[in-house]
């Protein structure tokens, strides 16, 4: 007779939902919804995320709340509302220590020059108004189509030194593009990276994607290896195309996805990038884990964070809050018309039991190829090893996980079905 966990694991491998974010459906948390605002520790440690939901083009694989960039006045009113929300939070929690601050989207650099300058002023006001941690490393997302020497200069002058931008795959240049991705030409990419390097000492992260059924292994590996070799980014992030991201595309088997990841992993390690197997972030610096400090504390430590802007997520003590606009069909209608007197804060607030908090932590930590046993014990279950002993023994026995440096890490076998494997810990 098969082990009960073997039967359960096989069942979960057959369901796509175990490879997506947690929770899977809104109704999964409906019973935990509360009135009021999410509370933070008065003198605690927190990271900020500012969401700019505007893009020049809408890629079909993107899961985030975004829309085509609107006229300058709508951009301005959006930023005024974000600015007001940030000031309100800082007035309520003046003693916090800021561990990270990411500006993402969308595409923040899709803003007009004047509005982008306003965004940088908001950033400077934040970092000048609070304490920052010793490892504070802010970051901003951009695109090769919207970054300009003028905006690079504004980013530098504001004090941000990490820039993240997406290539996804140069293989898209070789085929009919049917996923909405407006790929930049190679000369354009090289030119923009050169402008960033010329402007100052920046840490550059490049995003790539794998998991498309139409990707040709040889062409993809050759083209994207050339991009990494020529552009020499300090960090590389690999994003897997999950089955819920496109409703109509040539599907890719788990075995094919892992094979694509394996080639990327071998290639990056061969070029001097550091990252354990199963991790999706790689760096030339072993100290930074290939991410900004916001992501580092959120992914590895289960740290608190506050999101500003439409649909942004916040977490405090494992409880979760979503701003207005999550899954909204008309983003622009949510922007106040009264010059910053409105708010995007707190449309949905969930006070979660420990099992749900732990599940969220494990799901986020999966991007690191596992999760911290220390955090699991300190934040969730002091008796973690005893409580989950049968699962640990089973997954270790089949070679799906290993315990090293006080972490549970996925092995090569476990990574092939990382979602179902890790979900056994939050059954």
Summarize the structure.
The protein is α/β, with parallel strands linked by helices and 427 residues long. It has helices at 4-13, 72-92, 113-129, 149-158, 186-199, 217-231, 254-270, 293-301, 354-365, 373-380, 384-387, 389-397, 412-415, 418-423; strands at 33-34, 45-52, 54-55, 67-68, 97-105, 131-132, 139-142, 162-168, 203-210, 235-240, 281-283, 305-308, 313-316, 319-322, 348-350, 370-372, 401-404, 407-410.
List keywords for this structure.
37% helix; 427 residues; globular; alpha/beta; nine-stranded mixed sheet; four-stranded antiparallel sheet
How would you portray this structure in words?
The protein has helices spanning 4-13, 72-92, 113-129, 149-158, 186-199, 217-231, 254-270, 293-301, 354-365, 373-380, 384-387, 389-397, 412-415, 418-423; strands spanning 33-34, 45-52, 54-55, 67-68, 97-105, 131-132, 139-142, 162-168, 203-210, 235-240, 281-283, 305-308, 313-316, 319-322, 348-350, 370-372, 401-404, 407-410. It is α/β, with parallel strands linked by helices and 427 residues long. The two termini are 22 Å apart. The relative contact order is 0.15. The mean pLDDT is 89.
Unreliable spans are none
Cα shape = globular
Q: SS-based structural class?
A: alpha/beta
- How much of the residues is beta strand, in percent? 15-25%
Radius of gyration: 21 Å
How many helix segments?
A: 14
Number of strands: 18
**End-to-end gap:** 22 Å
What's the overall average pLDDT, rounded? 89
Helix proportion range: 25-40%
Q: Quick one: biggest sheet? A: 9 strands, mixed
């Amino acid at each position: 007779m098969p082990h009960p966990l073997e039967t359960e694991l096989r069942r979960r491998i057959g369901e796509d939902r175990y490879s997506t974010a947690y929770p899977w459906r809104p109704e999964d948390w409906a019973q935990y919804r509360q009135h009021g605002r999410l509370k933070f520790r008065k003198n605690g440690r927190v990271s900020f995320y500012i969401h700019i939901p505007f893009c020049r083009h809408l890629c079909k694989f993107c899961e985030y709340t975004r829309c085509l960039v609107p006229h300058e006045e709508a951009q301005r009113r959006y930023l005024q509302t974000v600015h007001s929300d940030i000031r309100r939070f800082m007035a309520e929690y003046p003693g916090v220590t800021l561990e990270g601050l990411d500006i993402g989207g969308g595409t923040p650099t899709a803003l007009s020059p004047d509005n982008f300058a306003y965004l940088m002023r908001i950033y400077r006001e934040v970092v000048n108004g609070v304490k920052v941690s010793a490892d504070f490393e802010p970051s901003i997302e951009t695109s090769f189509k919207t970054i300009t020497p003028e905006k690079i200069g504004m980013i530098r002058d504001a004090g941000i030194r990490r820039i993240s931008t997406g290539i996804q795959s140069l293989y898209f240049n070789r085929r009919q593009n049917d996923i909405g991705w407006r790929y930049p030409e190679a000369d354009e990419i090289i030119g923009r990276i050169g402008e960033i390097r010329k402007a100052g000492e920046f840490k550059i992260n490049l995003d790539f994607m794998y998991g498309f059924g139409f990707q040709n292994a040889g062409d993809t590996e050759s083209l994207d290896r050339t991009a990494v070799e020529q552009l020499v980014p300090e960090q590389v992030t690999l994003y897997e195309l999950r089955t819920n991201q496109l409703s109509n595309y040539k599907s890719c088997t788990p075995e094919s996805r892992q094979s694509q990841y394996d080639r990327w992993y071998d290639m990056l390690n061969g070029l001097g990038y550091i990252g354990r197997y199963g991790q999706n972030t790689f760096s030339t610096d072993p100290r930074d884990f290939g991410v900004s400090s916001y992501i580092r504390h959120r992914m590895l430590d289960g740290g608190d964070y506050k999101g500003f802007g439409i649909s942004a997520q916040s977490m405090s003590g494992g409880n979760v809050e979503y701003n207005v606009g999550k899954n909204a069909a008309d983003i622009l209608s949510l922007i106040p018309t009264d010059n910053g007197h409105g708010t995007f804060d707190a449309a949905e607030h969930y006070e979660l039991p420990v099992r749900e908090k732990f599940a969220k932590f494990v799901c986020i930590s999966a991007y690191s190829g596992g999760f911290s046993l220390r955090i699991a014990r300190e934040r969730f279950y002091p008796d973690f090893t005893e409580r989950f002993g049968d699962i640990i023994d089973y997954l270790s026995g089949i070679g799906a996980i290993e315990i090293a440096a006080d972490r549970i890490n996925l092995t090569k076998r476990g990574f092939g079905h990382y979602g179902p494997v890790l979900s056994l810990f939050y059954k």
